[in-house]
Amino acid sequence: MVADPSISSKLVAEFVGTFLLVFTVGCNVLAGNTSWAGVSIACVLMVAIYALGAISGANFNPAVSVTLGISKAMGGPGMDWKTVGTYCGVQCLAGISAAIAYSILYGETFNLSPNEGF
User: Fold this and answer.
1) How confident is the prediction along the chain (118 residues), in pLDDT tens digits per residue?
2) How far apart are CA 65 and CA 91, in angstroms?
3) Residue 54 CB: number of other CB atoms within 10 A?
4) What is the DSSP string of 41-103?
5) What is the SS3 string spanning 3-44?
6) I need a surface site. Which of 30, 87, 95, 115 has the fewest CB within 10 A?
7) Cβ 4 vs Cβ 36: under 8 Å
C-alpha cells in the first residue's frame, strides 16, 4: 500500500513543476521562438503533470490553487485554504527563481505586457 505524499514532497513537486513551466516560457520568449514555442511549453507541461501529478495534483499555477480553494469552500472537491496559501507561496517562489535562471542564462530580461495597440 502506498502512503500519501508528505506536504514537503507536495511542495517540492509544485516548485519543480512551476519552475519548469515558467523557465520554458521565458526561454521561448527570449529566444524569439515563435514556431515551436507552443509545442515545447505543452511538452514540458505534459511531462511535469505525468511525473508530478500523483504527488501534488500538478497545479503549477496560483490561479489553479485558488480555484481549488474556492471549489472546496463551495462544498465541492478541492483544497483547504492553508494548503492553497502554501502552494501559492511556493509557486510564486518557483516562478521568481525560474525568471532569475533564464535571465542569467540569456543575460537579458523582458517586461511582460501587451503589445502596442492592444
Assistant:
1) 778 999 999 999 999 999 999 999 999 999 998 889 999 999 999 999 999 999 999 999 999 999 999 999 999 999 999 999 999 999 999 999 999 999 999 999 998 888 788 7
2) 9
3) 12
4) HHHHHHHHHHHHHHHH----SHHHHHHHHHHHHTTSS---HHHHHHHHHHHHHHHHHHHHHHH
5) CCCCHHHHHHHHHHHHHHHHHHHHHHHHHCCCCCHHHHHHHH
6) 115
7) no
Quick: pLDDT tens for 87-106: 999 999 999 999 999 999 99
Q: Which three cell numbers stand for residue 98?
A: 525560474
